[in-house]
Amino acid sequence: MHFFTYKNNKLYAEDIAVSELVREFGTPLYIYSYATLIRHIRAYEEAFCEVPHIICYAVKANSNLAILSLCAELGIGADIVSGGELFRALKAGIKPFRIVFAGVGKTEQEIEYALKNNILMFNVESEAELYKINEVAKKLKKHACVALRVNPDIDPKTHKYIATGLRTSKFGIPIEKALEYYKLAKSLKNIKIIGIHKHIGSQITDTSAYVEALSKILSLYDKLAKYDVDIEYIDIGGGLGITYKDEEPPLPKDLANALIPLIKSKKGKIIVEPGRSIVGNAGILVTKVLYTKETGSKNFIIVDAGMNDLIRPSLYGSYHEILPVTPDKRQKIVTDIVGPICESGDFLAKDREIEKITPGEHLAVMSAGAYGFSMSSNYNSRPRAAEVLVKGENYALIRKRETYKDLIKNEIIPEDIL
Asked: Which position among 49, 71, 145, 342 bears the catalytic label?
């Protein structure tokens, strides 16, 4: 559930009319609901309250400092995949002992940065990475706490670009080789094994894939006990889906009810890594209609937000509901809603039925809180959008709109060679 609703024929974010925010901050504009974020975080905490656990928010979904600061205030941790995400998490006040570091391409500098900040553990994705972490830890005279990310070869039935637990994926260690890698990890002097990790993908709408994957991981967990490998943390990953159109994804309590019977008898804490299911429906992207266009074979609504602001429709063919900020009982048309980017793939919706809208009006792209701003870019030299957080009748700018000067602030014209 979210707190974007119509009142008095206007779209509201909690208790503020979206049109008011647009007047003050312009478009394109990301708007987030504090109440929705709180509700979703608490839903996870309550769902897993029966077992010792840590909720580690997946920073990649939306890395704004204000949202991370809210996570810190509520005592949850962070699932990170880069040194930059670690910097953000620490800056926001998230405790290092609640931070886990995944990703297949951790650099030596990132590993050193994480070790110096005493994060909870690395989720190790390869043999080469295991050796590199050991090497860096030895240089720093530290022990690196690790879990091995095990690839269970499970199809989560999601888009192929966000399925991460199949044998053909770049992520994790094949489950049939995991015992061998754990033995290797145990032999390395600056490695301390504390966990086991799996993550099978994103936008998953059925708990059966989670159950199948966790069952495989727990079979390995039992084998590890025979080799005196002490597992303190079972990291079950994240990836729970949300409703974009007509999906009926399980709630956090449904996920917990499916998994807790499998893990409650096991020793150690559970780590859960939700991202999209916390922030996805907590955000919208508001865009202004610039022009309408009819070609004889197609209708187009041209707006000021493009694939540089929200790439999911172009990248994944993803559906986002699009609503008028101020609806009216008008004729419906079938149209493409497209942005200003010079790419035929620049669209927010294809063949969408919507009210016949006029230039100057505004549309809200729903469920845009996850993988929206965090995947945005400056393509076509377009400044990135502003972001606003709404709490009841109050609101605050949490990211300034970029300016043209921001576009070139790190660029240098080399006078000695030009």
From this structure: 342
